[in-house]
Structure of Helix-turn-helix transcriptional regulator:
Amino acid sequence: MKHDPQRDDLGAFLKARRTELTLTAVGLPDDGSQRRVKGLRREEVAMLAAISTDYYTRLEQGRIPASPSVLASLARTLRLNDDQRAYMYGLAARDDYRPPRPPSHPTVQPQLQRMLDDLALAPAFVIGPRTEIVAWNVMGAALITDFGEIPEEHRYFVRLLVTDPTMRTLYADWEEVTRLAIAQMRMHNANSPDDAQLTRLVDELSDRDAQFRQWWTAHHVATRDTGTKHLRHPVVGDLYLDWNAVTWAADPNLQMIIWSAEPGSPSHDALRLLATWASDPTHAATASPRDVGP
């Protein structure tokens, strides 16, 4: 049978989810004895999902496809949330259909760049499924870093979070931000597990950082949609900003991340100050006061 990377990812995902469950969480008796495996055993998942242990074992090993009814049963058994369900179904897509893989070097249409540039007060950048940063505005560079100074082959948001020490200072909740970015990257690449560009990025960061390796292999997933982040900016101080991801209809692989603050709030005033600072020609060469290493 032809090797299928998506089946391998599906098996790893199922295993990761069952290791996080407890007997009491799924309604099974727990006598308190020491268990050799973390979480649920394969036979326990199979029993709860009303399938044979052999069938479930072959699913985890990536040897067989899963039927819609089995997926539905496993989703209930493993207590999957909406993002996890969507990810699982994406991995289990029919063998004779795969959505087109995102291009290696996404390009931004001029009208999208104009939209970014017209956001005078709102920091914004455009991100691809691998977290590649493909466009940004002046405020985006002033808030995060001067993306133009980073070589294109290194210009990934996840890579920036993992390899640039100043990101751990900029984001007050750096660990939460980084774990979420990794979960989003896995979610948005469910249909391209054998993508060479993604593999190179994951391999590099896994070699460089043990935390990244741990978080990536945990197989957590999340949709890139909206949220709030606390930043400690070196120029304007503390910022509490809302962010929203807007999918670009002309290329659904690209999303525009737009940051904003409640009008009249200290963070809104700080954004105005940052906009003034970023527009000063004397700061043009240092739109973000940090250096990003390779």
Q: What stands out?
A: The CA atoms of residues 168 and 174 lie 5 Å apart. The radius of gyration is 22 Å. The first helix runs from residue 5 to 19. The beta strands are 124-127, 133-136, 226-233, 237-247, 255-260.
